[in-house]
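Subject: design request, 278 residues
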């Protein structure tokens, strides 16, 4: 089980005092995260709390307004685009929709990153892709068109593609969204298995308490503009903090905000609407 150690060198991903937001709006600040190599970490929080935004900061898509993000020991803001590009080859990302290329079959979808980023031979590509498909139970689906896949199968193909380069860090954005209970359990176990087999650090952005607690070494709960709580799953499950309890039990009433917050942009829009009617 992971605790939250402090050195950057042994981290696959590290946030130090990070603030992120859009325009004038700061969503989260003072965020400290540590993802040790080979560990599975879950980042959880209510809808709109900023989880996907944190993931964008981890890929370098979004620059933090303050603080430092390091991936595999490198400060993302230090190198230029070339350094970021090189680092991205060592990361796998599974986006929320897991978008597959609809004009390619399953095999070519998984092979795509290898063809883009490596000089592997056809034999090496075939071996690697079929191996990854085997890992997600879909070796014999290699020839299928994406339209012939169920939602759960498509997610597993996307999973195989996210790890086909043998990444050292994989980021999963809502990997369980829209899956039936069986596919959900299978996907969670696959994520854990891939982390263990490949030794890759894995970060899950998720709402799903049961599945993520079953496979995560360490959990961060975001909300109220920052990290509200963190710890190993058992510690969070035993927490008496009202925010943590409400979130984990899915209770409607409590400190977890349901209403989208009023922003200056909204108030300006509202004023224009009201002005227009007078
Ligand atoms: N490109 C953007 N420009 C401006 N605001 C944005 C942008 N993307 C997201 N936001 C806002 O940032 C807030 C956090 O969004 P984010 O997608 O990070 O939340 P989340 O925790 O991943 O939510 P969910 O669980 O619902 O996917 C939301 O209020 C959203 O409206």
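Subject: RE: design request

Done. Sequence follows.
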């Amino acid at each position: 089980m992971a605790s939250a150690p402090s050195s950057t060198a042994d981290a696959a991903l590290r946030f130090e005092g990070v603030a992120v937001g859009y325009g004038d709006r700061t969503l989260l600040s003072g965020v400290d995260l540590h993802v040790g190599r080979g560990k599975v970490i879950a980042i959880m929080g209510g809808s709109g709390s900023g989880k996907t935004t944190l993931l964008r900061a981890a890929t370098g898509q979004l620059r933090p307004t303050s603080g430092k993000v390091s991936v595999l020991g490198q400060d993302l803001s230090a190198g230029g685009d070339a350094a970021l590009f090189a680092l991205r080859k060592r990361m796998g990302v599974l986006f929320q929709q897991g978008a597959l290329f609809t004009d390619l079959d399953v095999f070519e979808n998984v092979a795509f990153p290898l063809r883009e980023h490596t000089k592997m031979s056809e034999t090496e590509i075939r071996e690697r892709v079929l191996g990854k498909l085997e890992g997600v139970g879909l070796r014999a689906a290699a020839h299928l068109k994406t339209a012939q896949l169920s939602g759960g199968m498509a997610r597993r193909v996307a999973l195989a593609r996210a790890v086909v380069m043998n990444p050292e860090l994989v980021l999963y954005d809502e990997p369980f969204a829209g899956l039936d209970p069986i596919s959900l359990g299978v996907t969670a176990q696959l994520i854990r298995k891939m982390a263990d087999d490949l030794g890759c650090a894995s970060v899950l952005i998720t709402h799903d308490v049961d599945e993520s607690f079953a496979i995560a070494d360490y959990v961060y709960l975001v909300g109220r503009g920052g990290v509200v709580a963190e710890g190993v799953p058992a510690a969070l499950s035993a927490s008496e903090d009202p925010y943590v309890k409400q979130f984990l039990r899915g209770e409607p009433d409590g400190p977890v905000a349901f209403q989208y917050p009023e922003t200056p942009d909204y108030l300006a829009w509202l004023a224009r609407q009201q002005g227009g009617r007078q």
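Confidence is low (pLDDT under 50) at residues 1-6.
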